[in-house]
Design a protein that fits this description.
The protein has 246 residues and is of the alpha+beta class. It folds into two domains: 122 residues, 4'-phosphopantetheinyl transferase domain (Ribosomal Protein L22, Chain A), CATH 3.90.470.20; 112 residues, 4'-phosphopantetheinyl transferase domain (Ribosomal Protein L22, Chain A), CATH 3.90.470. 32% of the residues lie in helices and 33% in strands. It contains seven helices and twelve strands. A five-stranded antiparallel β-sheet has the order 1-2-3-7-6, with helices on one face. It has a five-stranded antiparallel β-sheet with strand order 8-12-11-10-9. A hairpin with a 5-residue loop joins strand 4 and strand 5. One of its GO terms (molecular function) is holo-[acyl-carrier-protein] synthase activity.
Length: 246
């Protein structure tokens, strides 16, 4: 289980091939969270055909890692959209010019992938207003130190370290949480905004949740609420975060 508000629905395992397993979880029987583990060493371009996934030109020209991550993410997206009852022709999610996913009409969703893991969260827009999901490799201590100033301020990190997280794990959680917030809000604001526009203002360690508060000027400019709750979890070498707002 990645996030505690979701119930397990189905799990499939394979002993060979590109996809190792797919896990399907449900929230209120209408929001689908699907994740998969995949084997990049088993990837070849024919995998797109085998899984019935469109192979866009911009992905064809990419390195193998990018191709494999894109394919794995679209495989779970296809299954999620099928679970929502969409026709086969509507189960393909293309890439917009700004590199964001192009969801079918009346569908809202979010995608993330890293290393050998991909995840998506998808529902109908009438059910949920904001979705942002993110998965990241936990940063090494040197990487966390070098990136810290771009991700958070000292007060934000202190909230995490006071709760018992190392600086590297704390920075990784904050990074992923702000990525989830960005993914959730980008379709609303339709513009890039940096991590400095949000800060960690609260941490609920018992419920594995934190609150991100937007800068007042940014929230006012775009007519946004100030506070957003992000759930987080750590599984092995990965940190996962989710913003899910009705």
């Amino acid at each position: 289980m990645l996030f505690d508000q979701f119930e397990p629905f189905a799990e499939e395992h394979w002993h060979s091939g590109f996809i190792r397993c797919i896990r399907h979880q449900l929230y209120k029987n209408s929001t689908h969270l699907l994740s998969c583990e995949f084997n990049i060493h088993s990837y070849n371009d024919q995998c797109f055909v085998a899984h019935g996934i469109d192979f866009p030109d911009e992905v064809r020209a990419a390195v193998i890692k990018r191709k494999a991550e894109y394919l794995a993410a679209r495989i779970v997206v296809k299954q999620a959209l099928s679970a929502l009852g969409l026709e086969v022709a509507q189960q393909q999610v293309s890439i917009a010019k700004d590199r964001s996913p192009v969801w079918p009409k009346d569908i809202i969703g979010s995608i993330s992938h890293t290393q050998d893991f991909a995840v998506c969260c998808v529902t109908r827009a009438a059910e949920i207003s904001l979705i942002g999901v993110d998965s990241e490799l936990i940063l090494s201590a040197p990487a966390a130190r070098s990136l810290a100033a771009e991700i958070h301020n000292e007060t934000e990190l202190k909230l995490m370290t006071d709760a018992g997280f190392s600086e590297a794990v704390g920075t990784s959680i904050i990074f992923s949480a702000k990525e989830s917030l960005y993914k959730a809000l980008y379709p609303v604001v339709c513009c890039y905004f940096g991590f400095e526009q949000a800060r960690v203002s609260q941490l609920d360690l018992q419920r594995s949740r934190l609150t991100l508060t937007l800068c007042r000027s940014f929230a006012s400019q775009h007519g946004l609420a100030s506070d957003y709750t992000i759930q987080f979890s750590i599984k092995g070498t990965l940190v996962h975060t989710l913003l899910l707002q009705s």
